[in-house]
Task: structure prediction
Amino acid sequence: MTDLRETPTTSGIDEVPRVDPADLPFLAQPTAPSPAPPSAETSTMGAAAADVDWRLVATLRARASDLLSQATAGERLDKENEEQLGRSIVLDLIEAAMAEDANTGRPVWSPARQRATANAVFDSLFRLGRLQPLVDDDRVENIIITGYDHVVLDLVDGSRTDGPPVADSDEELLTFLQFLASRSEVNARPFSEAAPSLHLRLDGGARLAALAWVTPRPSVVIRRHRLIQVTLDDLVARGLMSDVARSFLAAAVRARKAIVVAGDQGAGKTTLMRALCAEIPYDEILVTIETEYELQLHLLPEQHRMVHPIEARPGSGERGPDGRAAGEYSLFDGLYDSFRLDASRQIIGEVRGKEIWPMIQAMESSSGSMCTTHATSAAGALEKLASCAQKEAPGIEDRVIGRKLASTIDLVVYIDLRDVVDADGTRRRQRRITEIDAVSRGERDTGYALTHVFRNVERGGVACPHTLPDDLRELEDFGFDLAGYLASRRRAS
Result:
């Protein structure tokens, strides 16, 4: 491969030591798909944050962008080669800035400042700018922003802490978000006064949601998915459920039961869905249908042999006679198209409204399909789904809709998310599966009935064995620990 580090150096550069590429890990590894997570020294949460002059970063980023445009004029590079060239440009610009400071008598840059500034310039050019160190920090789960200088971080231990500013002004933050939304070559998203909400999948699988122009200051939430290749055993170890509940859910997936995962925002529905999907036999062909790719099952070839991932697209421009924006592709469209992909199961990221009827059809057509929905209880999940169905088909009686749901959904799993206070006064977020309910036809007006197979018996506890319908005893053939279930129920009584 041609040496892409043939950028002319600046006069005076030999008067200071050249930057050691070993001190700039991702600059020295052009073939790496993304920079390695920073250490505490290079994270903006660490000591090196003070070593970053963000005005200088903005200047170097602008120079790097111009040099990159000049170097690629008339030539289209793939992402890997473009970033490789960008690394070379950034490295030379850092060396030039160090030389200029040395020639004018300013202090010599420390290795920490070299690393932090190089990372910041590269991130501004190719990644998430000042947000990147937060997204890379393994201690951070969610990033919550209401204005450039008001940042709160949800940490993996469930606690919260203040974060650093992510721009120098709200206007700078908005400009960067618009750049971020528009730069995708595959699924660019509009973000403007005419389209004031943004939902975007970021490199590495994190999800960004933003609002502006309808809020006093820009509101942004970035959710990191830390557990991509996750199993039900992992969730037992994290206290989300008991081992008996794990055996029940694993057996339900293998027995091709249709499952709805419900919970509040941030409760861990997507993580639980990944863990459930890990129980699907390797050779089954799957379709995932999502607003933004979050499940990422198609990135786990050792776990799933064939996955057709479908991502919705909001479209842009004027709306047609049907009210749809040009280029729009909805979850509803994806569900219908998925029926021609010869899949054994459809995994639906989230049911919010009109997707309900294709979801029902999916669960009727291929047993073992799964979806998520926002709700505050297992019963609330079915009520929401029934409400969605009624809204999309107002001529159908509620009881008929309820019976249709009962005939297609086998189980509802509810994840509870709550704030708890430790003995030392620390507040943290706690996630627990508190309900696993079986769905059947009922004689009430709803048309369906729920049986608490597992439910929590103490505040903050995990769901414990409660009542097992006779038809679910067959799950013992698929690995369900029936003896353990019955023993736990006897002990509880």
